[in-house]
Amino acid sequence: MMINTEKFQADLLAWYDKHKKPLPWRLSRDPYKIWISEIMSQQTQVETVIPYYERFIKKYPTIKDLAEAEDAELLKLWEGLGYYSRARNLKLAAIEVQENFDGVFPSDLMDILSLKGIGPYTAAAIASIAFDAVEPAIDGNLLRVTSRLYRISEDISLGRSRKVFEEKLRGLISSERPGDFNQALMDIGSTICKPKQANCDSCPLADYCQLAFSEEAVNFPVKTKKLKQKDLYYAALALQNSSGEYYLEKRPSTGLLANMWTFPLVEMNKKEYEAVLSGEAIQSLPDLPESISRTAFLDKLTHIFSHQKWHIAVIQAIPEDRFEVAEDFLTEDKLWLEDMSAIPLAGPQVKIFELLNK
DNA sequence: CATACGTGGAG
DNA sequence: TCTCCAAGTAT
Question: Where does the UniProt annotation place the signal sequence (predicted)?
């Protein structure tokens, strides 16, 4: 079945004009705002993004503001969104724009693609939405919709499958309204042509779709990759001084939860972890200001990342053991704090803190 | 190319 | 409770 491209575009864009989601970043064509919205939207649902986006634009209205942002403030603003390297890369890219493009966000696709944190999808999205570049922005939605339109069975988990989808979309995209074309397909994908429900009754593309009203639709796209989390076991040490402040450390600048703050964590195997749960003392304490003679098991919790599952036993130094520490022990990476509102904390630490204040 | 990288919503 | 998924990118 051959698709009439002009008619397809007309139907799709007419639907978009009537039904498009009223998103805050769609009020502007400022590439900076489009960029921020696209980065935040990676692997994140739109409803989650909106309040973060509003706060971000208010705090950093221009690229220059972002380039000069303070790292901790930026991370704090990103707290809870996940994939924190996105925030670090945003600032790095803003600095690149200052230095390499005179502070003006580039309009050329390859220039955009050169920026830190921007890959093929985001570059095409920004180029098409902000600069009318005729480039398909191929995200999960477009992959799903396209796979159903053409009954494409290539496994989207494999990088080499990309060209099949790209070829089809290049043949369909509107050269007059490429940005709206991309966003229209994203909206169709997120509101109608969903992973486990195709809803062809309300789809403006049903006439063109090889899998319209077919029970097969939900089996597309084909995706093989499945993730399995690794179980990791920790004791988290809640150490309070006589002022009621907790001892926190900054995590390394690379890897999981880079640069975020944490209660000291002691990694252990499952057997040791279970021993701690049953009240036994921790075998190997980390390098702390003073040794802790007496600890008590408080409670346990779990936290699931995309690739790890943390089992955390929260351990408190009992009140009699509250200790003071010499000021010179504390550095930029170690501190005592009662108010957590000023430092970036990730999921596990937030949960631990809530547990302590229960 | 496979894996690391967060979190919250939906069924 | 469990599994999959959501506007991906870096390495």
Answer: none
| Residue A96 annotated in active site | no
Judged by C1' against the alpha carbon of A225, the nearest nucleotide is: B2
What predicted TM-score, i.e. pTM, was given to this entire model? 0.92
Indicate the fold that domain A5-219 takes in CATH: Endonuclease III; domain 1 (1.10.340)
* All structural domains of chain A with their residue ranges: 5-219, 230-356
Closest-CA residue to A206 (of A222, A220, A193) = A193
Q: What's the CATH superfamily of A230-356?
A: Nucleoside Triphosphate Pyrophosphohydrolase (3.90.79.10)
DSSP secondary structure letter of residue A62: S
Q: What is the DSSP letter of A28?
A: -
pLDDT single digits (tens) A45-67: 999 999 999 999 999 999 999 99
Q: Which protein residues have Cβ within 7 A of any strand C atom?
A: A 21, 23, 37-38, 41-46, 83, 85, 89, 116-123, 125, 139-141, 144, 183, 186-187, 189-190, 194-196, 223, 226, 306
